Amino acid sequence: MVDVKQIQNMAVPDAKGTVLPLTATRGSLVITAGSGKRADAMHIVVNSGIYNPQTATCGYGCETCNGCTGFGITPDPFNLFFGAFGQLNSNCTWSNGSYEYYTGSSNWTSNNTGVVTVNSQGSSSPGMAHAQAAGSTYANAYFSAPVNMGQICAEMPLPECGYTQAEPSTPATVYSVTINSADITQNSISVTLSPSGASGALYVELDNTGGGTYDSVDGTNVSGGTSSQPFNPPDIPKGEYTQITAVWVPSDSSNSYAAQYSYHFKALGTYLNTFYNTPDEAGCTARPESFLYDSGNCSSVSTCKGSNGSGRSDFLNQLDINGSGISQSLGLLSLEYYCRANNYRQVPAPCPYCGGTLTSGVSLAISASNQDGLQCGNNVYVYGIGTGTVADHGGGLSGNQIDHYEQTNACTANIGTPTNEPAFLLY
After folding, report:
1. Would you place residue 416 in the very low, low, confident or very high pLDDT band (cuts 50, 70, 90)?
2. Residue 42 forms part of a structural domain
3. CATH number, residue 255
4. What is the CB-side half-sphere exposure of residue 145 using CA atoms within 13 A?
5. In terms of DSSP bridges, do strands 78-81 and 379-382 run parallel, antiparallel, or are they unpaired?
6. Which of 95, 103, 97, 113 has its CA nearest to residue 142?
7. What is the pLDDT of residues 95-119, one digit of tens each?
8. What is the distance between the terminal CA atoms of the chain, rounded to a whole angstrom?
């Protein structure tokens, strides 16, 4: 039993070194648990009275039950990236505005463990949440806590201070960002954002091997779901790119969420695009000229005989430019320098520099001194035209020029319309 008068007479200091003065006639006494934690339960019997000297009677006693005025979970709301862990804490707002935490003594649950799981009381890390899949649910905490009841004045015995079963919850959302695929030839980066009900600013950047970046999408508001985002090829600076990064900032979250995707290409800058073919002398009109030719295939000539031939001059000019053509008298002719300079070879098929055959709309010819070091077999995408493979070298081409092979027999240098377009080396 605690006798306040006895404590006053003994001048026993409290935990803060304060003593109860002998002159004190009124005041209050705060009792806390021996653990020092104000939220811990205690069993106390209070016997007090207020003496009225006029009537010589004792009246009511008073007590103040401090406790919780509200309950919650932090953070609220709770957001996680798919696969990540995050700590939840349960608490109450104490009567003086401070907080008491019940994380370790709470039983934790999730309304949908397929989205979020939460470690409960007794585990090594109570309140630790793990994002299982993109989506939305609620995380809940259950714990017993004292209720703030304020001052109570009543006849003896005074009532017990009340406890309640607190059940706070917080909305929990798991976000995910996935880059599914990328294809610059289709100007498309497929991105899936989850959950579907969220929306926010999306940033898509192309990462350069030199340390630079290019933002193909810069803060566009995008809702959850799968969407196709652009490369914007004409705006991509020259350089080699190996990675795509997508960053999503949902409007209902204070965090950002990112994903990366390996994608390798090289922006070559603007190229002059022209076209060439296998001209047919039948469509030419100039006067004939004599020439020398030998017979063989694309890789060799059996003997250098230097046979005499004749062909129209405009046909021979196109043959010199395009590398092969169809003679009216000799069939297919190709340029060759095995026997002598400016000689022609009678062959069964065109002889591209890289070997193999020429395919309309696919085969590309470049200068032997190409400025970007393009080589036979390289796949090149030209914006607005399409993708082709380096198969040939062309005389008279500049270092930033691509000649596209077309399967026509026209006897003219004006095949297609020359254009200046950005080109990309695909890996």
Report:
1. confident
2. no
3. 2.60.40
4. 28
5. unpaired
6. 103
7. 999 999 999 999 999 999 999 999 9
8. 86
Is residue 384 included in any domain, yes or no? yes
* pLDDT digits 0-9 by tens, 365-377: 999 999 999 999 9
| Sheet (strand 116-118) strand order | 85-87, 128-131, 116-118
Question: In 224-322, where do the E strands start and end?
Answer: 225-229, 239-250, 257-276, 288-295, 307-312
State whether 86 and 122 are in the same domain: yes
189 neighbors 226 (Cβ within 8 angstroms): no
Q: In the numeric block, which tokens belong to residue 335?
A: 């340029």
High-pLDDT (> 70) share of the chain, %:
92
For 426, the 3-state DSSP assignment is strand
Span 281-319, pLDDT tens digits = 999 999 999 999 998 888 877 778 889 999 999 999 999
Residue 50 lies in a domain: no
Compute the chain's Rg from CA coordinates. Answer: 43
**118 & 231 share domain:** no
Instruction: Collect all residues with Cβ–Cβ distance below 8 Å to 62 and sequence separation of at least 6.
Output: 48, 151, 152, 153, 158
pTM of the full structure: 0.77
Q: What is the mean pLDDT of the chain?
A: 90
What's the gap between Cα 168 and its chain centre?
33
Cα distances (angstroms) measured from residue 310 to each of 22, 341, 417: 135, 17, 31
Give the CA count within 13 Å in the CB-facing half-sphere of 317.
12
Whether the Cβ atoms of residue 421 and residue 270 lie closer than 8 Å to each other: yes
Domain end, chosen from 233, 267, 301, is at 267
Contacts of 313 (CB under 8 A, 6+ apart): 286, 287, 288, 289
